[in-house]
Known about the structure:
The complex is a heterodimer of chains A (514) and B (303). Chain A is mainly alpha-helical and 514 residues long.
Amino acid sequence: MNISRWFKTIHIRRISQICFLFLFLFLFRKTDYPGREIIGYPVNLFFCWNPFIALSVMLITQTLMIIFIPVLFVIGLTLIFGRVFCSWICPMGCLLDIFQRLLSAKPEKKVAFPEINNHIMIVSLIAALFGLQLAGYVDPFAILFRGLAFVIDPVLNISVTGFFDYLYLNGPEWFSAVSEPVYQFLKKTLLPYQRTIFVSTGISFVILFSVFLLEMIERRFWCKKMCPLGALLSFISRFSMFRRFPKKLCTTCESCEPHCRMGAFGDQGHHFDSQCSRCLECYQICPQDRVKFTFKLFHKKGMSLNISRRHFVGSTIFGAALPFINAVDAQHKIPHPYLLRPPGALKEKQFQDVCIRCGECMKVCITNALQPTLFETGWTGLFSPRLIPRLGYCEFNCNLCGQVCPTGAIQRLSRDQKHHTVIGKAVFDKNRCLPYAKHTPCIVCEEHCPVYNKAIQYETVFVKDKNGQNIEIKQPYVVEDRCIGCGICENKCPLPGESAIRVRRERLGSHLNY
Amino acid sequence: MDRREFLQQFSMVSAGAIMAAPIFNIIPPVLAKIVQPNLSVGIDKDYKTLVKKTLAPLGGMDAFVKKGDRVVVKPNIGWDRTPEQAANTHPQVVKAIVELALTSGASKVQVFDRTCNSDRLCYTNSGIQNALASINDSRVVCEFIDKRKFIPVAIKKGKSLNEWSFYKDALAADCYINVPVAKHHRLAGLTLGLKNVMGIIGGERGRLHTNIGQYLADLCTVIKPDLTVIDATRILLNNGPQGGNLSDVKTIHTLIATTDVVAADAYATTLFGKKPEDISSTKAAYAMSLGEMQLNQMNIIKA
């Protein structure tokens, strides 16, 4: 084998894959408080240059959005080279390739499972057109990011820190002298700053894990048969200039066919350029040196969408029906009273439209307050962010979630705007609050209230203590006009279990404007 | 506090000699009779000079930090607020104290606080982390609180608390310098030197607010600062302990230094037009002979 040829093809591609995987993981790690006000890295890049997400969001808002300008790069790349994104850039594809190599039993046969990637794409795009955002549930980066942020990263962190903590707390002192510098080094470099916990991590894990499990059935099963981003890229690549020659399997050889990760060869050995991710593996292994990839400016026949007319119409109707199924969900009439959205979030209906459930805001939240919603706002609210004050509160000066949101569902707020952004209103439970219920001094909530002139005030009253003595006590109350609902009062309330002051959602009532 | 005894106990535990969950007994040498404390008050616009000037009547930093000492400087970094907002100790005051400790030959100067807001935001926006980084000396360590270092301590002299967890590094220090900021606090009246102990204790601190004066006094039987420097360069008069409005802040360029934390607190109340007995923790600590509260019993030196 010619060495220069060997190096040119497969290794360059693998290096590219690994580089982009590292870029993805690097940006993931940088999705955190940077020690100054502005993050300064395009941490949401993989969502901003994602044409599927961009199209879905722009269809639902029916506006052109500047934030998605990086999409032009991916589209341009695809128009020239075809679906190279899948084999050269996509971090999910890279991880699947790595996973495939780790499998002991390689899947041999092709399974008869139909390709539903076009269906998934059409259903979610049409649903978006009619006002329902589903992109985040099927987009590979959203699935990957959520899995990493909610499960993989916290689990890795807790197992590493737990190991070193155990050594530190239970091991002999001389051992800490060795283990602690290693630990501190890891903390500064690889590990996230803080331990995070998330609601129902299992769901996100199962979804991500399933994508990997599919790899045991068939190589790149997800990419070939399910990925809506891949389907869209494959549609864009219909005019691509960089194509394989010959257009069919050579009947005498066919040795490249089993190497094709994307299953680009049809039943009659026809090579589908729209399936091909230009991994160049066939070029590398061809014993006859017959396979070439060449540029040709115009093709007589563009490739059509790989879906039958019947299926196309069916998917369209299904996609159009879903928003209406959502609209008649009674959950929207009775909004969850304690479901708080991040600061700067759009109005509820609009927010649910534009939010792609990528998990960036929940990853970046400095107090771990933002958590994935389950079914509190109906089935279409799944994985959208909500603030749970008992787990963490909204930092007064922090605007990180608005900085990382790739779609503007959470608006970027200046510090001053943030100070006046209302996400809810605090309400006391006087049956439990210590100064009311037990005549005991407390007002920890007042101490922590970050509003400059304090949204929690108190009244000094004389009450009887347990011995019947008259004592002076400070009983707190909320000044509703000042309260921004940051939830620090609920977070810091010293009562065990549920707090005696809770932040309620401010805008109650139906939020659907159909 | 008997540092040697504490370290002995601690090494016993970490060597596995004591298997049960340890509770440390630390009994500070509480004075039977309060000695008339020296209290130095300085005013200067340049905070580096101010610190030096205020410490001079007490014998300068050399009187507290010996060569090779491990020093802990405990400022208030509790809130995500800027220096002008007067919720945290002024970064230049902290820096000046740390520099003096280094000059006196400290082998290590640790600066930390258990914050109320997110630690990274507090350390950054208070300006203290940057101020210390600008010293550029590897002996200065400005670290976030490490939760593993809280260890349970029996409070033998406590009236209403008999056990609480304390930060190991603060207990083990050769010299513990308490550098609170003087400011308004609705529940406690003012937050001063005694309340600064909140930053080195573990546990659910909110619980302590039900009887804050006595609890603080009890906690201070465990750890008695070798030196207390109250930062009153600017004081927060209202909406404490966080403030925010610059109109609540009064700039007076003042520093109070003494070995007696109760005396420091008592004197600081006068800056707010209050009396020492208005602050429940000062009163409780005085009642337990932890320090002097009567202003006429102090040797007040205007530096």
